[in-house]
Amino acid sequence: MRRLWREVVSGLALSLLLMGCVGSGAKPTAAPEDARNKVASPSSNSSASSVAKGTDVRRPRKHHYLFAHRLLPRIFFTDTDQLMMRLKADPEQAIVRFWNSVGESVSPDERLLPEGLSAEYGVRPDGVRVVLVTLPPAEVSPEAIFAALAIRGRERWYLAYERSKDPAAPDREIALLCGWNSKGEHQNYGMAGDYSRSAFNELLDAFLAKLPAPVAGIDRDGKVWQK
User: Fold this and answer.
1) Given this model, what pLDDT does residue 166 score?
2) Which of 43, 45, 115, 160 has its CA 20 to 30 A from that of 173?
3) Contact present, 120 and 131 (Cβ < 8 Å)
4) What is the per-residue pLDDT across 133-160, written as a single tens digit (0 to 9) for each?
5) For residue 199, what is the enclosing H or E element?
6) Is the dihedral of CA 25, 182, 218, 178 positive or negative?
């Protein structure tokens, strides 16, 4: 796994630049609003209200984006058993080590400290093995607030709870339950909530119970689609 890890990390920055996901002066093509913002409205009785803020045109931070949207899903689908073994043995140490490895692939001024980063391994009552990752605070869309690596038998899901905006009220910030599949395609499940861990847990429960089909996404060629 160490060799695979080095290959993935060393290729991240170049592949992202070639794909236009994070580059100087360019908006990330992996986050077009028409695909990411197709959502169901958050529950009105949510315990934490979405934060209302002005329009934010900043790009996602490269270190944060690469970690949650590129490296973790790629390693998860490529070497699932080794990754889960490490995260089960010592989730806190493993996740920080992974984060710091991504930092080595970006310039010094783009590196972020792993403040707020944590991970926990568990087995749900339904038998699904899950690693829940809390990311350093997300500042802009589509940085992830939480991520989940879930396995049931031969099925695997990588889910990212992304910071976004309510399409019906652009000044109102929400979080979207999205994910990546084994083909490297982004998927939006049309489920939204506030930034809290409890909201994420509720949506994760609902997702694993129903396994909804995505309502929008971005394929490997960068083409946006939606139902």
Assistant:
1) 84
2) 115
3) yes
4) 999 999 999 999 999 999 999 999 999 9
5) helix 197-210
6) negative
Of 168 and 89, the structure prediction assigns the larger pLDDT to: 89
Phi, psi of 99 (to 5 degrees): -60, -45
Supply 138's token pair: 């997300």
pLDDT of residue 222: 87
Residue in the block written with tokens 């991970």: 119
- Is residue 178 within 8 Å of 186, Cβ to Cβ? yes
Can you give the pLDDT at residue 32? 39
**77's tokens:** 């689908």
Residues in the chain: 227
Q: Are 31 and 141 in contact (CB under 8 A)?
A: yes
Query: Is pLDDT at 46 greater than 90 in this prediction?
Result: no
Which tokens sit at 104? 């080595």
**Please, are residues 191 and 204 in contact by the beta-carbon 8 Å criterion?**
no
Question: β-strands 186-193, 169-180: how paired?
Answer: antiparallel
Beta strands in 181-226 (DSSP E): 186-193, 216-218, 224-226
Question: Residues 82-103: what's their mean pLDDT?
Answer: 96
Q: Are 159 and 137 in contact (CB under 8 A)?
A: no
- More confident call, 121 vs 45: 121
Report the alpha-carbon distance of residue 227 to residue 222 in Å, rounded. 17
Q: 3-state SS of 15-40? A: HHHHHCCCECCECCCCCCHHHHCCCC
3-class DSSP assignment, residue 114: coil
Query: Whole-angstrom Cα distance, residue 164 to residue 42?
Result: 12
